[in-house]
Amino acid sequence: MLMIQHVSKCYQQKGWFRIKERIQAVKDVTLTLRQGVCLAIVGESGSGKTTLGKLVLGIEQPDCGAILFDNLNVCTTVKASKKLLQKNIQVVFQDCQSAVNPKMKIKDIIAEPMELHLSLSKAERVKKIEQLLVQVGLAPRDADKYPHQLSGGQLQRVTIARAIATEPKLIVLDESINSLDLLVQISILKLLKQLQREKGFSYFFITHDLHAVQLFADEVAVMDKGEIVEFVSDITQIDNMTHPVSRRLLAARLPIPCKHPSQSQRFDREEHVS
Amino acid sequence: MLEIQQLSIWIQTENGEKQVVRDASMMIPAGQTVGIVGESGSGKTMLCHAVMQLFRDSRRYNGDILFEGRSLLAMDEQEMRQLRGNDIALIMQNPIAMFNPLVTVGDHFVETMQAHTPVKKQQALKIAAQQLARFQLPDPSILKKYPHELSGGMLQRIMIALAASLSPKLLLADEPTTALDTLTQLEILEELALYQQQTNTSMLIVSHDLGVIAKMADTIVVMRRGQIMEYGPADCILVEPVHSYTQALLAAKDNKYSLEQLVDAWTGEVSGELYEYRQGHWVRQEETSC
């Protein structure tokens, strides 16, 4: 569905008093993402994973290579195909506070992409907004609130509702859950997983947290200095990654040390009872 | 070292007073690390502010905080200023927002040190370079840089070095690594642990990530909605969590469980009394449905 073919991207630092510097953000990346699959891109900060996400969204143009979505180039300038791409590729950013307009009510935030991409009557739209809010675990009465009245986790759900409002095929998740509480992270991952199963969404999951990857992704690509250094197509093999960068990311997971066998047994039993 | 006794905190809001911490008691023994874990709104940052006595005018306290036997709540602002920085230092969450963008890193050190000790500028810069070297920033040219020229990880290291430069007896770290990526997080936590080993400083570390707390703390406090849910030695809590909220938090960091098995929202009410489950390990009683 999404094909990234030999894509490179270079940034040039410009300044009045500075010598021009070229930074190779993405270097000859080739990846394929099938429908209904979650592909995780992991790497340290500065490894080019966000740039790759921007390229997929068509916000940035690659210097060379091409990104094809359903055989359409994401950098197309043809208006009709551009609109089709915008409908089918959506994004959820890390910082939800700055990803929404503080002057708009929640219902207007979610309605905006629908007005542009779906031809619905006003009544249908209101009904759909209600449906979406319930789907992401919010109450229909939240529709009349403003962003500052919601917590970070709730607002992130709103941005997810906005992303799924146009029924896209691909969602780019750029560090979408990192700043949230542990249990809120789990509930959002669960929601996204459920949508993936029901609607066949694909995810381009950009993160540096391998624990979330393990829970959520199907395939993993590790990036370092703009290049893909390791690719794992089976998520259960994630512990066997060999590249030094992958090993370092694996080591940074901060697992809970020293497990006592009795603890897990007790937890399972309690789950069983409830 | 530090003892928090039955502390309750109220803050002023538009709709009158709101209680954010209720009857929290804990102790930080000298040379040990206590970790507070809890979700947003659980009152963990409020506790840090209470220990530093920040925003005194807009908050109301009940209970007591004893630092080396002296009550912080009874102190006037003058005495408190002496304590802040010298004896108790705070590392904040967002390093980028905490630095003055118009002041170089070196001048931040000079300002901080001259506020507390009669030290010459040159000497202060020398101490600054030493402290920075301790936190993996050995290049002295960093002192001439402005905050925007440095990465988040570097700024957080500088903030820790800044806090450490006056060798406080107690270091409060409020979400010290939340804004950073996992690799930098690990490095900084290891440096903090090493610093503590070398200087025998007491530490209070606050995070919503149980992984961070598990790595650092000797004693763990689990908080939710301003109340302590479980409090005890890290070995006990990590191996055998008693409260179901702690269990849910632990499972969420465990590689063994798949996404479907995890509890995504712990909706139980915070009620019941704290009781001593075993020596030094306190748990809040849960209401049983049967």
Describe the structure concisely for a colleague:
Chain A is of the alpha/beta class. In chain A, 38% of the residues lie in helices and 24% in strands. Chain B folds into two domains: 190 residues, P-loop containing nucleotide triphosphate hydrolases (Rossmann fold), CATH 3.40.50.300; 72 residues, no CATH class.
Q: Explain this structure to me?
A:
The complex is a heterodimer of chains A (274) and B (290). Chain A is an alpha/beta fold. In chain A, the strands form 2 sheets. Chain A has a 6-stranded mixed β-sheet with strand order 6-7-8-3-9-10, with helices on both faces. A 4-stranded antiparallel β-sheet of chain A has the order 2-1-4-5, covered by helices on one side. In chain A, 38% of the residues lie in helices and 24% in strands. Residues 259-274 of chain A have low confidence and may be disordered. Chain B has 2 domains: 2-87 and 171-190 and 201-284, P-loop containing nucleotide triphosphate hydrolases (Rossmann fold, 3-Layer(aba) Sandwich), CATH 3.40.50; 96-167, no CATH class. The interface between A and B is large, with 41 and 46 residues. Chain B: One of its GO terms (cellular component) is plasma membrane. Chain B: Residues 4-250 form the ABC transporter domain. Chain B: This is ABC transporter ATP-binding protein. Chain B: Its main location: membrane.
